[in-house]
Amino acid sequence: MKERRVVSDERPPPAETLISEKELGARIQELAAEISAHYSDSVPILVSVLKGSALFLADLARAIERSIEIDFMSISSYQSAGAQSGVVKIVKDLESDISGRDVLIVEDIVDTGLTLNYLRRTLEEREPASLRAVTLLDKAARRIVPVPLEWSGFEIPDVFVVGYGLDFQGRYRNLPELLAIKDLARLANEPLLLVPSLFEEG
Ligand code: PRP
User: Fold this and answer.
1) Residue 55: CB within 6 Å of ligand 1?
2) CA 71 to ligand 1 center in whole angstroms
3) What is residue 8's predicted lDDT score, i.e. its pLDDT?
4) Burial (CB count <10 Å: 0-12, 13-18, 19+), residue 104
5) CA of 102 to the centre of ligand 1 (A)
6) 3 state DSSP class of 37
7) Where would I find the H helices in the chain?
8) Catalytic residue check, 41
9) What is this structure's pTM?
10) pLDDT computed for residue 77 by the predictor
11) What is the pLDDT of residue 81?
12) Maximum alpha-carbon separation in the chain
């Protein structure tokens, strides 16, 4: 697929490709090879944190040449506790018993680190045999809590990104590549701004 450059008028484009579909695919193959080698004698449970990581999980899982299991969790922050409190609640818990199992948390992005920190603490209490994490994107400059990350696809700058699972107001998750939003204020004002240049609607 050609790289997208979203142009709507004479103003600078509000978004541009940060990581292409091809680059994402190549890096995911590399991560899958490392993960496959690491779990050479066990059947790990991949834990996908909804919703953003679903696309990464689907591609990563298919590139792992080993027997694996998959489970899902959904968590949300307590807004009243403040966005940076790290206080979250489990909206949907795992169905698997992870005690004694090798567990790999699959995230699309680690930003402040609060979510992954909470997940690691919560899942560690269930006494897995091992607990590791893979993230496609690492926005390291935004970290508030240092948190171990065994595998990371790309370190990205502190820009707002959409696509490949990441959303703006629920939209744009289905883009096959990652876009950097150059004009977030404009998008906030007009959330569907990018739709006509990205999708054929109607
Ligand atoms: C994103 C991402 C991580 C979290 C990382 O989820 O999937 O779970 O934010 O941020 P942090 O490091 O600052 O805690 P989001 O809350 O956007 O939900 P979504 O995946 O359903 O879009």
Assistant:
1) no
2) 17
3) 57
4) buried
5) 23
6) helix
7) 21-38, 54-63, 114-124, 184-189, 195-198
8) no
9) 0.91
10) 75
11) 53
12) 59
Cα 167 to averaged position of ligand 1 atoms, centre (Å): 10
Tokens representing 121 are 């603490």
DSSP state, residue 44: P
Cα Rg for the chain, rounded, in angstroms? 18
Ligand 1 pocket mutation, candidates 115, 156, 162, 168, criterion most atoms within 8 A of CB: 115
Each residue's pLDDT tens digit, 118-177: 999 999 999 999 999 999 999 999 999 999 999 999 999 999 999 999 999 999 999 999
Dist. CA 24–CA 164, nearest whole Å = 9
Q: Pick the atom of ligand 1 nearest to 53's CA.
A: 7
pLDDT means over runs of 10, the chain (202 residues): 59 88 98 97 97 97 97 82 68 97 98 94 97 98 96 97 96 95 90 83 55
Q: How many Å apart are CA 51 and CA 172, to the nearest integer?
A: 12
Residue 112 Cβ < 6 Å to ligand 1:
yes
Q: Identify the burial level of 131 via C-beta atoms within 10 angstroms of its C-beta, where 0-12 means exposed, 13-18 middle and 19 or more buried.
A: buried
